[in-house]
Amino acid sequence: MALVKLNFNRGLRLLTPVQYKYVFQDPLRASTPEITILARNNHLDTPRLGLAVPKKHLKRAHERNRVKRLCREYFRLHQHKLPNYDFVVIAKGNIGKLDNLALTQMLDKLWQRHIRLARKSVSR
């Protein structure tokens, strides 16, 4: 049985504006009123994550950090199930009203949708 690493190093992050722009150009999209996850095939052997949590929707830094921490942790624990795409998680309107459990469940639903979308695009 292969050992699954559950790390979140630099290689698993989107770091430059060019990498973000690539995802924004022609993404697969999964959304709720509080959060959107955009994805695009990255032609690498691992998925990568980028976060966009604007001050416009979450005024306080600790609120933005909580959302980013939960998104990163979900990605870290489930990266081996995800397709090799670049993902950008975008926080929207009422995300600050969600508790940790509700946000985690919403992330799970959106990631599962991306897994299905990736399987569909491969089978075409």
Number of continuous helical runs? 3
> Which sequence of strands runs across the widest sheet?
1-2-4-3
Q: What amount of the residues lies in strands?
A: 15-25%
- Write the element-wise H/E pattern from the N-terminal end onward: HEEEHEH
Query: Which class of secondary structure composition applies to the elements?
Result: alpha+beta
Q: What best-fitting shape do the alpha-carbon axes yield?
A: globular
Give an account of the 3D structure.
- By secondary structure, this protein is an alpha+beta fold.
- The protein has three helices and four strands.
- The protein has helices at 17-25, 61-78, 100-123, and strands at 28-31, 35-41, 48-52, 85-91.
- Strand 1 (28-31) and strand 2 (35-41) form a beta hairpin.
- Helix 2 (61-78) packs across helix 3.
- The model has no long low-confidence stretch (mean pLDDT 88).
Helices and strands, with pairings:
Layout: H1 17-25, E1 28-31, E2 35-41, E3 48-52, H2 61-78, E4 85-91, H3 100-123
Parallel strand pairs: 3-4
Antiparallel strand pairs: 1-2, 2-4
Helix pairs in contact: 2-3
Characteristics of this structure?
124 residues; alpha+beta; 4-stranded mixed beta sheet; 4 strands
Give a concise summary.
With 124 residues, the chain is of the alpha+beta class. Helices cover 41% and strands 19% of the residues.
